[in-house]
Amino acid sequence: MSERTLAIVKPDAVKKNAIGDIINRYEKAGLRPVAMRLMHMSKATAQGFYAVHKARPFFDSLCTFMSSGPCVVLVLQGDNAIKKNRELMGATDPAKAEQGTIRAAHGANIEFNAVHGSDAPETAKFEIGYFFAEMELVG
Length: 139
Ligand code: CMP
What we know:
Blueprint: E1 2-9, H1 11-15, H2 19-28, E2 32-39, H3 43-49, H4 59-66, E3 71-79, H5 81-89, H6 102-106, E4 115-117, H7 121-131
Antiparallel strand pairs: 1-3, 1-4, 2-3
Helix pairs in contact: 3-4
């Protein structure tokens, strides 16, 4: 079933010049970008995006990190896009991510973990709508 998911190439991965490698992995796996933007989030934008985590001890640090430099936000479309992207990313903690995954290759630790991907259809809907208007999705 074709579906859409929101992905973010986080500021740590952009600083490491890993945008191309990460997007290449999406494309090779059959996940096609249907919207994409290079942006430097404000802290308030990061707080709104990660509002579900606002009670977590790492929330402030996470939002500082996500607004520390440019990132790439993109909508990926393909068969089972949500699950496929989570497999490509690997575990949240790069130390636990399987070899060959994006986080194993580019993540430094559980916070600076290179990429984000929606975890379920409802979150994908919220996250895509947070950054993109329907008319910006070109798939
Ligand atoms: P992400 O998949 O974007 O979703 C929430 C983010 O919070 C996660 O990736 C990490 O960047 C960060 N995160 C999750 N757990 C922790 C933690 N225990 N300590 C610090 N950051 C975390």
